[in-house]
Amino acid sequence: MDLMADDSPPTRLRTMASWLMTQVAVGADRVVGERLATADTRRHHYRVLAALDESGPSSQAEVARNCGVHSSDVVAVVNDLVGKGLVDRSPDPADRRRNTITITAVGVGKLRELDALLADVQDELLAPLTTDERTELVRLLGLVLEHQGRS
Amino acid sequence: MDLMADDSPPTRLRTMASWLMTQVAVGADRVVGERLATADTRRHHYRVLAALDESGPSSQAEVARNCGVHSSDVVAVVNDLVGKGLVDRSPDPADRRRNTITITAVGVGKLRELDALLADVQDELLAPLTTDERTELVRLLGLVLEHQGRS
DNA sequence: TGACCAACGTTAGTTGCACCAACGATTGGA
DNA sequence: TCCAATCGTTGGTGCAACTAACGTTGGTCA
Question: What are the residue boundaries of the HTH marR-type domain, all occurrences included (chains A, B) (predicted)?
Answer without folding.
Answer: 14-146
